[in-house]
Amino acid sequence: xxTPHIEAERGAYAKTVLMPGDPLRxxxxxxxxxxxxVQVNGVRGMLGFTGxxxxxxxxxxxxxxxxxxxxxxxxxxxHFYDVENIIRxxxxxxxxxxxxxxxxxxxxxxCTTSNFAAQYHLPGLFAPTASFPLLKTAEAIASAxxxxxxxxxxxxxxxxxxxxxxxxxxxxxxxxxxxxMEANALYCNAARAGKQALAMFTVSDELLTGASxxxxxxxxxxxxxxxxxLDTAAAL
Length: 236
Ligand SMILES: O=P(O)(O)O[C@H]1O[C@H](CO)[C@@H](O)[C@H]1O
Ligand SMILES: O=c1cc[nH]c(=O)[nH]1
What we know:
Layout: E1 16-19, H1 23-33, E2 35-41, E3 48-53, E4 56-61, H2 67-80, E5 85-94, E6 104-112, H3 132-143, E7 150-157, H4 168-173, E8 178-180, H5 183-193, E9 196-206, H6 215-235
Parallel strand pairs: 1-4, 1-5, 5-9, 6-7, 7-8
Antiparallel strand pairs: 2-3, 3-4, 5-8, 6-9
Helix pairs in contact: 2-5, 3-6
């Protein structure tokens, strides 16, 4: 069996899949943290791998950028590959003063400028949220680490990276912590499929100050987030 975007056979993915936007980050995770890792997808270069972490089967699959791309891959994993849990691990731009480069943000909710949820024809607006069991487990793992500052709250999944007019202040006034581009679609797909999802992010940019992660910070802080996500997967 394959889908238009995934060439893997049914059963090739573990029940928990980590999803970075960048397929090369998926490759890095497989090579760095997984044992017995095998590549299960290479269609469009959107790499996917399955291996073991601390003896537990775990997969990692690139999602691409934006809600449409995340919408495709998470839908196919949930519906055609029997995946139960998806943990997005991404980068984000913080819009709150105390959220600094390297900090970890977990998305309890995901606002959006995308029209992704319009497909459901709901008689109102849907509020996409993380799965509480995943969030609770991941937050406990992150908080136990001395090397991480972890904040849980609302994020914005934006449709536009290069905005003509910056939306930062409007969302900041509503208590939104940070901006990324995929969590909303992931949470919608999980809700509709009756599955579990969580999105977490390393702050790569402070949109209020203009600070951004150095190469070294990207290496270490992103690695800490990967470990939190993998330890969460192993604990499920
Ligand atoms: O680092 P990733 O997971 O790709 O996430 C963020 O980075 C990309 C934009 O540069 C968007 O996909 C955004 O959500
Ligand atoms: O500012 C940022 C940083 C990462 N990802 C985004 O979508 N925006």
